[in-house]
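Field log, afternoon session.

UNIT: design team B
ACTIVITY: writing a sequence onto a fixed backbone
BACKBONE:
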């Protein structure tokens, strides 16, 4: 989706030359939420702005959908990339609907198409179109205005959205609410997001991948749980904070942090029955078992929906036949499970020594379980 190759940005000349970004190499996968973070002046915002050419790189290449951005018309490029900033930037003299419809209007969408899209987006964040469409920005709270800023970025259904400290000016409660909403939107819409923040807690809540920068360079790029478990140096350790570091990832078994009530379906279960069971349990994933009740693999609700109307498709056709398909033992360490999740797996099926399913683990359960372990260790130490 997005790749930066040896990207450098130099400001000034001669003795006043300053290298804001220094030979950055970064890949962001489709559907990934990557968070750029680091101390002030580390180059994170400059890196973000080079993606949509608000700042032009001094050297290197930025590829979007496989095409170098320098070869694209910069105006058209920006119209096809969503952009959300801290100051929001809503036009005060335009209604909320008109603000959302700015880019669709520039792209010559019909009035009817714009109106339908605006209603869809407002409903997506639980803002009643009948109430909010004709209001003006000054009539909205700060949190509501920021939601409109996000909706404007989503209006033309861009594949890529850039967010530059969008919640920095909001109060803590509103900020936390919007963090939850953004993560839910990103997952449901499967958008690729590059998000800049200076807040490590925000990065840990939102990120699929954290990119920690210092002095214009990437110091560590990893999934949140991996970065907390294995900081590459003292700078990373100090920036994360000792209180957030994961305890004993190399020896703690994944069975201690797994979800223990996974949805399990037999290979003979029909696609329709499986989907109903997933909807009833509100689960995006299910473990498929063979006739001997051993785990065959994991299926997603999306994969079932895709083949629902096709004839001759069975559950086993949707899974593979080996541990590479997301099956791990309960004795697998948290470190190794985190590595599997970092390498692209969304969820892992945990099995006992007889290969029978006993749980599921994903990034959320991994982080939650580790926090619980940490809290137990801390309370135990306090009692001692």
């Amino acid at each position: 989706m997005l790749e930066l190759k040896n990207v450098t940005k130099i400001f000034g000349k001669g003795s006043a030359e300053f290298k804001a970004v220094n030979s950055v190499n970064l890949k962001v996968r489709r559907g990934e939420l990557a968070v750029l973070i680091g101390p002030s002046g580390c180059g994170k915002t400059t890196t973000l702005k080079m993606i949509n050419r608000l700042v032009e790189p001094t050297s290197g290449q930025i590829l979007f959908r496989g095409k170098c951005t320098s070869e694209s018309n910069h105006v058209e490029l920006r119209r096809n990339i969503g952009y959300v900033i801290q100051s929001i930037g809503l036009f005060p003299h335009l209604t909320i609907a008109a603000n959302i419809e700015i880019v669709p209007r520039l792209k010559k969408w019909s009035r009817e198409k714009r109106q339908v899209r605006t209603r869809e987006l407002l409903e997506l964040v639980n803002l009643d179109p009948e109430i909010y469409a004709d209001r003006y920005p000054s009539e909205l709270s700060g949190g509501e205005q920021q939601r409109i800023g996000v909706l404007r970025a989503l209006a033309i259904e861009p594949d890529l959205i850039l967010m530059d400290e969008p919640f920095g000016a909001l109060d803590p409660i509103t900020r936390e609410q919007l963090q939850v909403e953004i993560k839910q939107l990103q997952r449901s819409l499967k958008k690729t997001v590059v998000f800049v923040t200076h807040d490590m807690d925000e990065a840990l809540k939102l990120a699929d991948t954290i990119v920690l920068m210092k002095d214009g360079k990437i110091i560590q790029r990893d999934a949140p749980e991996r970065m907390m478990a294995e900081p590459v140096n003292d700078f990373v350790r100090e920036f994360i904070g000792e209180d957030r570091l994961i305890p004993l990832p190399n020896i703690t078994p994944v069975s201690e942090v797994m979800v223990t009530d996974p949805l399990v379906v037999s290979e003979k279960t029909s696609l329709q029955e499986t989907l109903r069971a997933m909807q009833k349990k509100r689960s995006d994933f299910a473990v498929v078992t063979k006739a001997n009740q051993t785990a065959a693999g994991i299926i997603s609700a999306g994969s079932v929906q895709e083949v629902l109307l096709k004839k001759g498709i069975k559950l086993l056709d949707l899974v593979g036949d080996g541990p590479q398909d997301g099956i791990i033992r309960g004795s697998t360490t948290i470190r190794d499970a985190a590595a599997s999740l970092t390498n692209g797996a969304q969820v892992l099926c945990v099995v006992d020594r007889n290969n029978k399913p006993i749980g599921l683990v994903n990034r959320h359960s991994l982080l939650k379980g580790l926090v619980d372990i940490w809290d137990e260790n801390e309370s135990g130490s306090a009692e001692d």
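LOG NOTE: The first strand starts at residue 2 and ends at 11.
NEXT ACTIVITY: expression trials, pending approval
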